[in-house]
Amino acid sequence: MALADELRAAVRDYLAGRPGASWQAFARDVGIAGLLVPAKHGGAGCGPAEMAAVAEELGRVLSPHPFLQSAVMAVEAAAACGADELLEELAGGASATVVLPGDGELRLDGDVLTGVAPYALEGELVLAYAGGALVQAAPTRRTRHVTMDESRPLQRLDFDGVPVRRLGDAASWSRVRDLGIAALAAEQAGGARRCLEMAVEHAKRRHQFGRPIGSFQAIKHKLADLLLVVESARSAAGAASEDEVAAAVAGSYCTEAYLMAAGENIQVHGGIGITWEHPAHRYFKRATSDAQLFGPPQGHRARLAAHALGTG
């Protein structure tokens, strides 16, 4: 069995047995926080395949753990700058978030940061790209947003002239963004697959006119089309970490695939699919919020167009 498959099984078993475990416990028991951290800094030294396997499992259960922003984006940002101490903190279970250029209005004057990041993923440590540099800073205020998707907490970060720790220049920010998109795409593929599984299970179990609704041609075609979309999303997510183009392809395709899968899951379930008690609506909410996290599908396609036309 490949390492990615072993890791996938371990994460699935852990999440099933300890659904309320903290990020620190998860990091301690499975080593997930340091997955991409080099072994010399206390991590596992794994690569994109293992990252995608973990992200897919987290997306499958709508996990609130900060794997995307902390174990992927923050680790990549720190590694690119040679911030060894920070890498060791992250591998040990410290959570972090990364504010990318354009995610807020931040001004760096010397070693003082001022401004606001209106929508940031939650994390104990805050890394921000500002003034051509990557800095670590403690926000003056954190305000948690009330959002449609409570499984992906967002917060507003205010910086009122706070001192910063300079980590390096901002040259790596686009790679950090693209790796974040790749991890998100894997989460989306995992969520889409779970929506398909739920729809198939219901189609087998629900009877009308004396037979399972899955035997009706309309449902068969709907589920067959959805299977093709889900498998394609997984393929796109698997290649997303290769380069900027692959990340943009995955960002566009996996976002729309998840939205389709979440919507069709509700349709197959019928009336029960729109009730508060059924989990289908939670996947639709996550799919909808994910569609804005690194920009909508149209934004990813605009980047692809710019690349293809040589205008980017």
UniProtKB/TrEMBL annotation:
It comes from the Bacteria. InterPro entries: AcylCo_DH-like_C, AcylCo_DH/oxidase_C, AcylCoA_DH/ox_N, AcylCoA_DH/ox_N_sf, AcylCoA_DH/oxidase_NM_dom_sf. Its cofactor is FAD. Belongs to the acyl-CoA dehydrogenase family. Residues 183-308 form the Acyl-CoA dehydrogenase/oxidase C-terminal domain. This is Acyl-CoA dehydrogenase family protein. Gene3D superfamilies: Acyl-CoA dehydrogenase/oxidase, N-terminal domain (1.10.540.10), Butyryl-CoA Dehydrogenase, subunit A, domain 3 (1.20.140.10). Keywords: FAD, Flavoprotein, Oxidoreductase. SUPFAM superfamilies: Acyl-CoA dehydrogenase C-terminal domain-like, Acyl-CoA dehydrogenase NM domain-like. The keyword Oxidoreductase applies. It holds the Pfam family Acyl-CoA_dh_N. Residues 19-86 form the Acyl-CoA dehydrogenase/oxidase N-terminal domain. Transmembrane segments: none annotated.
